[in-house]
Amino acid sequence: MEGGFFTNQIIKTGCVMKKILFCSVLIFVFVIFWQSAGATTAEEWFKRGTDLEKQNDPIGAIAAYKKAIDLNSKYAQAYFRKGKVSFSLKPGNCVEAMEDFSAVIKLDSKNADAYYERGLVNAFMINNEQARSDMEIAAGLGHKVARKWLGLKEKGGIKYIHLDNYLSSKNGPVVHFDLDSADINPPYCSLLDEIGTALKGSLPKAMIILAGHADSTGTEKYNHNLSLKRAKAVRKYLLERQGIAPERVTMEAYGESEPVASNNSEKGRALNRRVDMVGVRVE
Fold first, then answer.
1. What is the pLDDT of residue 224?
2. Residue 279: what pLDDT?
């Protein structure tokens, strides 16, 4: 009798669990259907996208932003969020993200955030001159992080100088470093020699700011110190090998805080191990 009683209880419990599971599935399907049916305007799809971002569903968010753009081709914020989420999800989406940020800029030429984000994408694609141009525009519009990316402090009367115009190298005024190293690799010596020549010749009144950076390998404190060592190594080269006056060379250390590419890949980390060089003239 006891065995039969427990068997019946198990069967009843199983039936109840099946009913609960079935009801849960119905509720889930209803919620999804209701949400899809509920979004009818671009604003509602945009709100859906932001909600999905918070739920850590970037693919769903991108789809929602696309729907918002389909309904309103002039929805700048939808282009912006779509571009940012796409690039964060997969840096290989850089071309699509570039198009999105360019669309924002076309719709709103004073959008500093769009210039900054497009600058990051350009840097990832090693379009160094365009990246610097975007960052300078963003900085001019008051974007503080763009100013940090450029290695500039908050002060007025500064004219930015495109050092690219004084270089024969197509790689731009950037020195990259090996993992956990502050040693300047020989191929970059010719780049630094060109910059030294420009500072002594065509740019006698210019200063140069060295912004040291690191990838995310290691602790934050360690990476900050490593980025400073890299900036110091470049400064030492310019002072000792090119005879540049110390007061014309300043340094900033950003550690891992200002990546130009994702630290999730070796290629991205290699791009982040760098010293950016910015020419400025105070007027």
1. 94
2. 86
In this structure, the number of other CB atoms found within 10 A of the CB of residue 203 comes to 18
Q: Is residue 99 part of a domain?
A: yes
Residue ranges in the chain whose pLDDT is less than 50: 1-7, 10, 28-37, 153-155
For the domain that residue 68 is a member of, what is the CATH number?
1.25.40.10
| Whether 222 and 107 share a structural domain | no
Number of independent structural domains in the chain: 2
Tokens for 160?
A: 């930015």
